Amino acid sequence: MNLKARMLLSFISIFMVIVAMFSSTYYVTNQQKSDGLVINLSGRQRMLSQKIAKETLVLSFTKDKAAAIKQLKNTEKVFDNTLRALINSGNAPTTLNPSGAKAYLPGATGVVREQLLTVQTLWTEYRELVNSARNGNDNALRSISSKSIKVLAAMNKAVGMLQKEADQRVSTLLTLQTIAMLLGAALLCFVIINLRRHLFTPLDDMRTFANKVSGGDLHAKINATYLHEFENLKNDTVAMVATLNTLMKQADDASAEARRNAQRTEEALAVAQEKEHRIAAIIKTIRTVAEKAKDISTRVYDSIGNLTSQVDTVNGGVDVQRERMIETATAITQMNSTVVDVAHNASNAAELANDSKERAEEGAVGVRQAVGSIEIIQNSILELKESMLLLGNQTDSISRVMEVINDIADQTNLLALNAAIEAARAGEAGKGFAVVADEVRKLAEKTMLATRDVGQAVTQIQAQAHTNIEAVESTASEITASTEAANAAGQSMAKIVSMTYDTAQQITSIATASEEQATVSEQIEYAVNAVTGVAEETADGMARASGELAEISALTAQLDSLLTDMQLEAAPSGA
């Protein structure tokens, strides 16, 4: 049986005791309603029995016999009608006029009825004597006095029985009220103990637990075992705190991981910037070397032109040509060495650029993982928010139960007031019931005060639950802001990866062009060496010198074109 059913059953039991007490009181007081009238009219019967005797005796002396006889018959009729109503129930005259006002009398039961039947037998004999005396029978007249005494004694005994029966009803009422009061007190004690054990104690434990958690003790526990709703509430609250503790640890871990990823990203960015500066310096060097090589190429081209115009006079200027070709070979060798160095440095820059790209991609993956972790934490915080709302709803359900209890206590107080009013109407016979009704009213007021205290405690729990809900909502907002910031960092890392990739592509192109330039430089060096050999052997074959010079002119033009292309490709990278 759950707590709500227990409390409802307890208060229904108290209410049933109150209803039973009220019903028994109503039943007994309803029976007592006619006791006073019955006893009063029964006492009047004693007076009427003596009045009949007196009027019968007066009849023998009075001159106005008709009036006396009429008066005697009226008295007899009043006595007879009242006696029949007392025995069998019915209307009895409330005055000495048989045709006057009447009141209903309940029929007698038990020994009282037997006594009234005895009175009726005596009344029958007494009435015959009265009739005989009224007709002038002196013996009957002399016997009337003794017979009236017998009727009086029998009626007096009946009145005593009626009085005793009325007192017995009062005693029964007091006994029932005492039993009901004791039973109500026992039920009330049971309800109070039950409320203290299954409602107040769990609420105090939950409040202590909530204070510890709000104070920062997330490892606090509730060691007690409760029933039904409070056990579920305890388990849900403990699970909520455990989940909150886990989520906070996850948030701390994710924050530390995000800081580590950010640090690695900053380091990778610094390396990339350093490599970018190095690449810029390399490109600047390439441009300088290319400008020098172009200048040299131009001068070689001019020299070859001059050499071609002087082919006819080559024999006279072979020595001069040999010296110049040696100088050209030396310059080409230096240029070839420089170009090889440029190609090697460009290759290293390409490798560094690729490494920077991989580091940037690793940083992007780390940022995406951080974003995923923060989104998981965000979902967990939202689930915690729903749990806190459920806790608030459960405390609202407890408040509704306390409102029902308060309404029952209020109705009990109202019933006690009504019972006190009825007791006041009952007069002296209702004094005992008025005392009981006042005690019931006091108990109802105590119940209302206790219910109000419980309601205040539940209100405090609801306020704490709402505070926790607001804190969780604030945490969810902060997690959402962190998620947005992490997403922005991820987008920035994606841009860095893209820029690093573009830089790597450009450096790879520069390395490829440098390698091609080195190849061409080697070919130029070979050609110049060949020209030098031809110059040394010019005495043996001047005819081949013209063809070799044409080839040198073409290679020089090609070198000039390659150097021009290299300058054009290096210009954007240098910018």
Describe this structure in words.
- With 575 residues, the chain is mostly helical.
- The protein has 2 domains: 3-206; 233-385 and 469-574, Up-down Bundle (Hemolysin E, Chain: A), CATH 1.20.1170.
- Helices cover 89% and strands 1% of the residues.
- The protein has helices at residues 3-32, 35-59, 65-88, 110-134, 138-214, 228-309, 318-426, 431-536, 542-574; strands at residues 90-93, 102-105.
- It starts with a helix and ends with a helix.
CA-atom Rg in angstroms: 63 Å
CATH class of the largest domain: Mainly Alpha
How many E-type strands?
A: 2
What ranges have pLDDT less than 50 throughout 5 or more consecutive residues? none
Distance between the termini: 84 Å
The profile of the biggest β sheet is: 2 strands, antiparallel
List the helices and strands in order. HHHEEHHHHHH
What is the CATH topology classification name of the largest domain? Answer: Hemolysin E, Chain: A
Overall mean confidence score, pLDDT: 76
Shape descriptor: rod-shaped
CATH-derived architecture of the largest domain: Up-down Bundle
Count of helix runs: 9
Q: What proportion of the residues form beta strands (DSSP E)? A: under 5%
Which structural class fits the helix and strand makeup? mainly alpha
Task: Reconstruct the topology from this structure.
Blueprint: H1 3-32, H2 35-59, H3 65-88, E1 90-93, E2 102-105, H4 110-134, H5 138-214, H6 228-309, H7 318-426, H8 431-536, H9 542-574
Helix pairs in contact: 1-5, 1-7, 2-3, 2-5, 3-4, 4-5, 5-8, 6-7, 6-8, 6-9, 7-8, 8-9
